[in-house]
Amino acid sequence: MKHRAGLAFTAIAASLVLQVGPAPAQEPAIGQVSDPASTPAAGARATNIILFLADAAGVSALSAASLMAYGEPLGLHIQTWPHLGLSETSPVDAFVSDSANGMSAIMTGVKTRNGVISQGPEAVRGQSDGAPTKTLLEYAEQRGLLTGVVSSQSIADATPAATYAHANNRSDWGRIFPQVFSPRFGDGADVVFGAGRSRIGEQLAAQGSSFSALSRAHDRPIYAGLDEVPSANPRPVVVADALDVRAATLRALDVLQQSPNGYLLVLEWDAHTDDPREGLQNLVDFDRLIAEVEARVDLGDTLLVFTADHSFGLQVDGGRRGQPLLEGYDAWKAAAGEDEDMVRLEHVLVNATHTAEEVPALATGAGSGRVRGYFPNTHLFSVMMDAWGWPKD
Predict the structure, then answer these.
(1) Which element (helix H / strand E) includes 314?
(2) How many angstroms separate the most distant Cα atoms in the chain?
(3) What is the C-alpha radius of gyration for the chain, rounded to an integer number of angstroms?
(4) Burial of 309 (0-12, 13-18, 19+ CB in 10 A)
(5) 3-state class of 106 per DSSP?
(6) pLDDT per residue over 201-233, tens digit each?
């Protein structure tokens, strides 16, 4: 155990809707938003930070998730948060980002190239390394905080990997995952929960390694499921085939909230809408989990940030109140499923690709006041560092 920018978007949003307190988790108050002036500690220093990353959840996805789940706009819990802006996600050499560049920019404050994980823009994917860029998790480890990463996806995939690893190729899971156990600062992430066990295991085997070998070498078990973790384990690692994100998140909080010095928790839940019902339901479930997490923390010393690594080609172009948003979904699923690049439902069109427009960034709690206006995604790194009151290397 360790010893531990632009337009005032918030004001415009607040003027368009009723300014009352945040809605309960399961009964969202449609169209209600918190008053920024009454937000606890919006300019205060944070002890703890929780970053919620909905992979591919652009503005249109949040809107559609609310319409699908509640039949009205502005029904998500995060849509009641008082501080919001639009985050620009491009890599250094293109307009459209992947998860590797998108999350690396948030975690390090440095934009890079698609396919590159927390390395500088001089890196060339699969060919040459760039300088490792220091991540928020590494800053937190250096200062004795507890840290955790939870993902619905492979724990070695681009988004979670950008918190703890540095690599010129996001596909190289067999070299990315072992970096959990060889940190550059502190003793590394304290809680690591994610999926991807089969493919990570295959890539480890191709290098003459295995989960068992890593466990023995670092005296740290790597469990295949959350239910295998002893309650007394203060630094659990789970690499499963599939993960119950809610259970994993609450378990991670149980561990991290023991810290006397504060903690960083990064949560990823996939929200790609190439299957619109699955992607939007993931986003609705994530939103409900966020409300549950918020109820367990003190916003006077905890910063909560929600954003996405990039946007996705979903649009709502029809529909009426009282009608299901995803009318025609079952017929589409039966006829084509996920084999098509274009999804055409009665009221929803999905061009199944990443897109270049800005994504939402929302925040509440300690240090949340700087999330406003248009900004590059690297600004979120600065928001979180400033909330801690830490200088950047």
Answers:
(1) strand 311-316
(2) 60
(3) 20
(4) buried
(5) helix
(6) 999 999 999 999 999 999 999 999 999 999 999
